[in-house]
Amino acid sequence: MSILIKNGRILTASEDYVADIYIEGETIHSIGIDLNTQADQTIDASGKVVFPGGIDPHVHLDMPFMGTFSSDTHETGTLAALHGGTTMVIDFILQTQGKSLHHALETWQGRSNGNCYGDYSFHIAVTDFNEETKKEVIQMIEEEGITSFKTFMAYKGALMIDDGQMVALMQEVKKRGGMVTVHATNGDVIDGLIAKHRKEGKLSPLYHYLSQPEFTESEASGRFVDMAFYTDVPAYIVHMTCEGALNQVRNATKRNQKVFVETCIQYLILDASLYEQNPEGAKWVMSPPLREKKDQKALWAGLNQGLIQIVATDHCPFKWEQKMMGKDDFSKTPNGHPAIENRMELLWSEGVEKGNISANKYVEVTSTNPAKIFGMYPQKGCIAVGSDADIVIFDPNEAHKLSVDTHHMNVDYSAYEGWEVKGKCKTVILRGQVAIDNGEVKIEKGYGQFVKRCKISKVI
Ligand code: URP
Ligand code: ZN
Ligand code: ZN
Fold first, then answer.
1. How far is CA 216 from CA 105, 183, 187, 222, 262, in A?
2. 286 Cα nearest atom in ligand 1
3. Ligand 2 mean position, distance from CA 266 (Å)
4. Which residue, 163, 153, 164, is CA-closest to 125?
């Protein structure tokens, strides 16, 4: 199978030019002006932007959490991702406390194997670091190609590890060439504030927000950064929301420490005023919570300063009935919101179209940096000869509205209902196959492949 994409405006993290792309099999064969190679299929991309398929390194598919499961499976989630221009995701495996990492891996493989439309990889969350888990770190890296280890500084009793375990894990991961990533919030303080609010009968979604003040995130981010400095492990903070946490990373750069930072689309464009709605505010109950306008400003600046390298989603959808598990008590609302399908279009529209980031920065933070930081570059994350032909053909002029009526995520509301975006993913190619064309699905379930990743120590 071969495809010739003609006359598109090719965007990478560093280039912007008009040319043709010739794809043979799963990879890009050649790029040039006026290529006249014969192909099985020719796509006219005149007037369109052509960029590498999005990589969303933070999604939770079919994940057991807070007494229920996130509502997108590996099938529905990766398909919705493709509709929105994301050709690869990195999903989170959660170790059950008292059980092994391998047990968790096998459970997630049972859910994902043969079920994905889009390509995928896993991070593994270490929730119980002990002598047995320690032996598994090297196996995850060397045998499974799972090179990033997620930690939680909150969700005590289910996911949280203490600082002693954190440092011990960091030392082992450093030795084996991996990376430690973190949900950085102070779980003990948050649990105390939740208990206080519940005791006072303050149970609406607003109190979810008020139980996680900014300092709980900045304090934990700073603590994590210090532990990473001490152990010299490659470190990555997921879903950063606020100015205070960003300043902890800014301080670390003063001692020449490099910490990678991810924010998510919602923290750039939504704010905490949504929590005043009851019960609708439950749609945005996530951790950490949405913040203030001044934090949005800091995050956009952080992207442009290079302090934040990635915009992900933390896609963790729940249907309204699931969200209503917390109708009488915010602390029972499953945390998370749906965005896997919306990230690429929202960030183009709110970022590039509105002049908050450049088009090259857009490619960098949605695709190239995730591929580089997580050990998949240049197989993924770029438009270059020899790379996987994961390509989005995007119409920057097509305006449309996001809605539950048109999205493909398995959730019965949109967190962005009625939001007007300028720019639409028209054709999405995954490893040389047209996967989505004008909203039509052209591949079968199971086309998506597991991507083994390189040791992080080799790439950064
Ligand atoms: O609210 C969130 N973020 N839910 C998913 C789990 C996590 O903390 O990332
Ligand atoms: Zn988290
Ligand atoms: Zn998450």
1. 31, 11, 8, 10, 17
2. 1
3. 14
4. 153
Residue 238 CA, closest ligand 1 atom number: 9
Span 131-146, mean pLDDT? 98
Residue having the nearest C-alpha atom to atom 5 of ligand 1? 336
Mean pLDDT across 376-397: 98
Q: How far is the CA of 286 from the centre of ligand 1 (A)?
A: 6
Nearest ligand, CA of residue 151?
2
Burial of 288 (0-12, 13-18, 19+ CB in 10 A): buried
Atom of ligand 1 nearest to the CA of 285: 1
CA 300 remoteness from chain centre? 17
Both structure tokens of 410: 């398995």
Residues near 97 by Cβ (< 8 Å), separated by ≥ 6?
A: 127, 128, 158
Q: Report the separation in Å between the CA atom of 315 and the middle of ligand 3, taken as the mean of its atom positions.
A: 7
Phi, psi of 442, rounded to the nearest 5 degrees: -115, 0
Assess contact for 224 and 246: CB atoms under 8 A.
no
Confidence of residue 460 (pLDDT cuts 50, 70, 90): confident
Question: Residue 301 carries which DSSP code?
Answer: H
- How confident is the model at residue 458, as a pLDDT? 86
Distance from residue 287's CA to the centre of ligand 1 (Å): 5
pTM comes to 0.99
How confident is the model over 419-435, as pLDDT tens digits?
999 999 999 999 999 99
Distance 30 CA to ligand 1 centre (A): 41
Nearest CA to ligand 1 atom 8: 287
Provide residues with CB under 6 Å of ligand 1. Answer: 60, 183, 286-287, 314, 316, 335-336
Count of alpha carbons within 13 Å of 327, Cβ hemisphere only? Answer: 6
Ligand 2 centroid distance, CA of 261 (Å)? 13
The contacts found for 29-37 with CB under 8 angstroms, 24 or more apart, are 29/2, 29/385, 30/385, 31/383, 31/384, 31/385, 35/4, 35/6, 37/2, 37/4
Strands (E), 60-136: 64-65, 68-69, 86-94, 119-125
Q: What is the pLDDT of residues 6-22, one digit of tens each?
A: 999 999 999 999 999 99
The Cα–Cα gap between 136 and 169 comes to 11
Whose alpha carbon is nearest atom 4 of ligand 1? 336
Mean of all residue pLDDT scores within the chain: 98
Model pLDDT for residues 95-128, shown as the tens digit of each residue: 999 999 999 999 999 999 999 999 999 999 999 9
